[in-house]
Amino acid sequence: MTDSAAWQENNALCNDGSDCIEKPYQGSHSYQVDIKHNNRDQQAIGNALYQDNDSQIIELITTESITTELKINESNTRSDAPIGLFDSGIGGLSVYLHLAQQLPAERYLYYADTKHVPYGNRDSKDIEALTLVAIDWLYKQGCKLIVIACNSASAHALEVARYRYPQLPIVGLVPALKPAVSQSKTGKIAVLATKATLEGSLLNQVIAEVATPKGSIVTKYFDPQLVPWVEAGMPEDSETAQRLREKIRQLAADEVDYLVLGCTHYPFFREFLLREIEDKKLSLGVVDSGQAIAARVQYLLVTNKILALSQTPNVIKPLNFYASKYDTALIDMLPRLLGSEAVIEYHH
């Protein structure tokens, strides 16, 4: 298969990643307590993420610099190679939970660009450059498949990332609009996402192809404080939490009957939303794209014959976690999001 053909096939397989969404993650994990700290050279993650001036990142990787197609190393095609996940922060861990549940034999390497979180308020070129730096680094670590577990990064850098690595499966995220449209009784859906996602071409293409032909009305809403709220532990007495309560009451009053969580940070406050919906007896469903992404990843692994096999398929391997910036709050937050018994290996 030529590089061009591989690129086209990869696009065909991944572009409809949200089309098979049915239900968000509802499971739980039980892990053995084993939190490790490894000091390991991150090879500077492209020597860019540790620069204080973001403009240096833009100079390092621009649209013009990605025209050279890179070849896949042998290590990137081994079935025992890791799956890479990337997000601007810890929100992509909601996608990891789906993957670990559905594909427990796989190894996972997660990179959080916590130095530059959130991406949702950045312009398109910033998001593109930061995303390419992260994907380049994951590729060099030998990842056999990469999930851009960030809606903002998917909206502004997915296609250019696939062009850079035509033979490497790269899965992006699009808000789960299709199941919301198909299940809605009022024809009114709200998408809660970052500004970058709401303004991106991916979401608007899905609205035009899925919602508009059925006469569905899609309301877009974003709150720039939601991602920082999740990263801070989601205190329920905060102003952000109160705005969220008021917003879902307003949506229900406007006859919106489905709320789409269009950012990977947001499934972590899904239970908060469901409690409020139940307490106020609102007719409002909540969906996200995590389960469909896990299904798509499994399909690509099988299709490319790189699905990992394990003698102990029910034992989930440690999560290898890298971040561009660490602090105490981050390290405290991960076990809260993944479960107190999560096996996490932190790499500095």
What characteristics describe this protein?
seven-stranded parallel beta sheet, 348 residues, disordered N terminus, 14 helices
Short description:
With 348 residues, the chain is α/β, with parallel strands linked by helices. The chain has 14 helices and eleven strands. The strands form two sheets. A seven-stranded parallel sheet has the order 1-11-10-3-2-4-5, with helices on both faces. A four-stranded parallel sheet has the order 7-6-8-9, with helices on both faces.
What can you tell me about this protein's structure?
- The protein is of the alpha/beta class and 348 residues long.
- It has helices spanning 3-14, 45-48, 54-60, 93-102, 124-140, 151-164, 177-183, 195-199, 201-211, 226-231, 239-253, 270-279, 290-303, 328-338, and strands at 36-38, 83-87, 108-112, 145-148, 170-171, 188-192, 217-221, 258-261, 285-287, 319-323, 344-347.
- The protein has a 7-stranded parallel β-sheet with strand order 1-11-10-3-2-4-5, with helices on both faces.
- Mean pLDDT is 81; it is low at 1-70.
Residue runs with pLDDT of under 50 for 5 or more positions: 1-70
Total number of helices: 14
- Helix/strand order: HEHHEHEHEHEHEHHEHHEHEHEHE
- Rg over alpha carbons: 19 Å
| Shape designation | globular
Average pLDDT metric? 81
Task: Tally the beta strands.
Answer: 11
Which percent band covers the strand fraction? 5-15%
Helix content estimate: 40-55%
Computed structural class? alpha/beta
Main sheet specs: 7 strands, parallel
Provide the spatial order of strands within the biggest beta sheet: 1-11-10-3-2-4-5
Kindly report how far apart the N and C termini lie.
38 Å
